[in-house]
Amino acid sequence: GGGGAAHRLCPHDPVSPPHVHMSPCAPPQVRPGACRAVATSAARRDIDTAAKFIGAGAATVGVAGSGAGIGTVFGSLIIGYARNPSLKQQLFSYAILGFALSEAMGLFCLMVAFLILFAM
Questions:
Q1: What predicted TM-score, i.e. pTM, was given to this entire model?
Q2: Could you tell me the CA-to-CA distances from 63 to 4, 5, 47, 50, 88 in Å, in that order?
Q3: 30, 21 contact by CB (below 8 A)
Q4: pLDDT in tens, 73-95
Q5: Is NADP one of the keywords UniProt gives this record (predicted)?
Q6: 102 in Cβ contact with 87 (< 8 Å)
């Protein structure tokens, strides 16, 4: 046979070739706090993910303000046009300016939300 004491195989490892010298099976050496470190890192990752979603949601709330601002701008345009139809072109240009500024604020809020989600 070819199975001396120097060539003893680990009983849990049936695929080891017979010419490799292996000591009897011993439990792997693990740091004392390794399991706790893995659990802590998993918990920290979960907390970070939750914080990202909460932050992105809070940043997205500003989009609702932008929508309300746009509604106010065009509502005021209609009221102004009803009061003085001869100023239609001037009122409309001011309304477009107000719309652009309100929409820009909403887009900034959305941009911050995406930065929180994907860049942090």
A1: 0.60
A2: 76, 75, 25, 21, 28
A3: no
A4: 999 999 999 999 999 999 999 99
A5: no
A6: no
